[in-house]
Amino acid sequence: MAKSVSTNTATEQLHVQTPLIHSRVLSTPTQRVLLKLENTQPSGSFKIRGHGYLCSTAVQEGVRHFVSSSGGNAGAAVAYAGKQLGVHVTIVVPESTPEFMKRRLREEGAEVVVHGKVWDVADKHAQQLAKEEGSLHISPFDHPRLWTGHATLIDELAVELDNKPAAVVVSVGGGGLFLGIAEGMRRNGWDDVPIVTAETDGAHSFAKMVEAGEVVALPEISSIAKSLGALAVSEKCAEWVREGRKVIPRVVSDREAVEACSLLAVKHRMLVEPACGAAIAALQGISLEGTIVVVVCGGNMTCPSLLQQWIQQTGAVEAQL
Predict the structure, then answer these.
(1) What gap in Å lies between CA 1 and CA 19, rounded to an integer?
(2) Is residue 215 part of a domain?
(3) Residues 56, 88: Cα–Cα separation, whole Å
(4) What is the pTM of this model?
(5) Which of 130, 196, 218, 311 is the Cys-Cys partner for 137 at CB 3.0 to 4.6 Å?
(6) Is 37 exposed, middle or buried (0-12, 13-18, 19+ CB in 10 A)?
(7) Which domain holds residue 281?
(8) 182 and 276 fall within a common domain
(9) What CATH number does residue 104 fall under?
(10) CA dihedral for 197, 201, 205, 208, sign (positive or negative)
(11) Which residues form the Tryptophan synthase beta chain-like PALP domain (predicted)?
């Protein structure tokens, strides 16, 4: 597989260029839907773009221990990066983290610490551990180097597409991918391309921010899309929106997100998590015509039994062959 454009030739690149495929199932007479398959990254999600870049540059600067706070895609990316770079990694995860994800992190050589009921509590503990041990705390989404790394996704699209798309659809949790997409669009002259932000109801802190004009913290995460489970987005997201960055916020139900996961599993033979399904489900509310790129952000937090559990839990209609 071809390597993508590097953020810095002096750093070790840990991500790969991912496939961009046409989805006949999702396309309509007025919309050509393309899927950017970030679920095929070595760590299982887009996160390795930004976290790989941050970790590689940190090692160049002498860092020998990473502490992060995600039992999901970000944790998997940091654990993978640490193993590739020969650096010790500690991942602090909330109690809600599935056992199979804890096991996967340990298989990558990471030390796993369970702390708190929600991610925000786990992250505060991770910050304290890093401070006490003189290590580098790595946020799942809130660091400029993460955004610079994630921006390589747009660098690839700019080469792969003959023309600008009508829109790019991305799932939003804490906002790291959104910020990377926005940065990538700016450096490729795509500032006029709308970013459709997809969230599930109960994990919709970005939509709340757009509505209020400032960062708003949710009281809790009630959605099953745990990978979107940041109570508040990065302040930098609000700055981009205030500057006039064109965004179209879409909030879908858990049921819609799960039905999209089922559709991808049956029609495209790909298992993804509800956080990713939200971006597919968000297509239903987009009236724009032309090429729509949907970022298939990841598939770490899922398995066949979990998908069946979500279908039963939400009353979702299972896709058929």
Answers:
(1) 9
(2) yes
(3) 13
(4) 0.92
(5) 130
(6) buried
(7) 20-45+143-314
(8) yes
(9) 3.40.50.1100
(10) positive
(11) 13-298
